[in-house]
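Encode chain A's predicted structure.
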Amino acid sequence: YSVALPLLGLMPVIVYINEILQLWLKTPPVHAAEISVILLFASMILSQTSGYRMLIDATGRNKAYQISTSGFHLLCVVIVWLMLKCDFGIVMALGVGWIVPKTLISAICIMQARRLLGIPIRRAVDQVIVPLAFVTGASWSICSGTCRLISQPLVGFVLTIILNAVVVLGLFWILLSTKERHAFGTILDKMLK
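Encoded structure for chain A:
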């Protein structure tokens, strides 16, 4: 479940983005935190289907997929530009213009996996999207709760990373099938020997 790995680092960073930017830049630019969160969230969306993208690329029959996803990446720029021209504001324009096309790219990836590899859409939803949504919600709850409870940012950030790792890894271990747990255990055994 490589899709869970971004949650280990991204969710604590998203929750503590203001503090991180103030530490790094002293005086962050206006909307820097919001823009950072939008870009991090977009990368999380794309990471959900990274395994399917690798399988599609391995088929060698990925021209249509590459063209369509490239079009949606270009669509990001067009949507943001149009929304800025219509005075929606930078945060709204980036939020809609970046998140919606990235979500569509992930949906295209799932549909291409079905078309090229025969992987049912229901399988992607049941085995990737729903578990990831559940783990993301739990990760968000732990991270935002820790952030609100601990007033000292450095201590809070470190504790958030630790608690988030326990929650994310623990939930994914619970959500793995017996076959996946066995395969993971075999890989760990080989790595530790």
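The chain has a mean pLDDT of 89.
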